[in-house]
Amino acid sequence: MIQVLFVCLGNICRSPMAEGIFARMIEDAKWNQKVACDSAGTNSYHIGELPDERMRKTALKHAIQLTHRARSFKEKDWEAFDYILVMDNQNYREVVKKKTAGARASIYLMREFDLAEKGAEVPDPWYGDLDGFESCYTILHRSCNQFLQYLKSKHQWD
After folding, report:
1. Which domain holds residue 27?
2. What's the whole-model pTM score?
3. Domain of 48: which CATH number?
């Protein structure tokens, strides 16, 4: 089974939304036996907390319920996952710092799979209003869709 990990700073906004979107896409494609996902943060500010209320409201507007509890990225994640998708350059650097000798994961910026702005960062909506959360959803949905197409092609799934 392919294991995918989404990573942001606190694991209460961007990465749990990416996890929720991607989990829905996996379910819709009936690929639950082929791929699984999780999310984590590069800091420990919010360990055990649900995603930000504004992100949960945004997700519910799109029929996605976010129930993930925040956790920190650990060195062992390099060995447990096949793909690590990070939301911005700062988090990319923090994850790479924890890379282990037994690492098997490939790491990407989330928006390397965004055809609209390939390689850009996913803006952190935490400091803004609800429009920023909706924009984040749109970016992540687009990126997750392209990432799923990438997996389908790379692993030759039908």
Report:
1. 2-154
2. 0.97
3. 3.40.50.2300
Tokens 């996996």 locate to 26
Q: Determine the Cα–Cα distance for residues 91 and 53; give it in Å rounded to an integer.
A: 22
Is 30 buried (19+), middle (13-18) or exposed (0-12) by CB count in 10 A? exposed
Please state, in angstroms and rounded to a whole number, the distance separating the CA atoms of residues 95 and 107: 9
- 104-137 residues labelled b (16+ CB within 10 A) or e (exposed): ebebbbbbbbbeeeeeebbebbbeeeeebbbebb
Asked whether the predicted pLDDT for residue 158 surpasses 80, the reply is no
Number of folded domains that form the chain: 1
Q: Say how far apart CA 1 and CA 49 lie, in whole Å.
A: 28
Q: Which amino acid is at 35?
A: V
Catalytic (active-site) positions: 8, 14, 124
Half-sphere exposure of 112 (CA within 13 A, CB side): 14
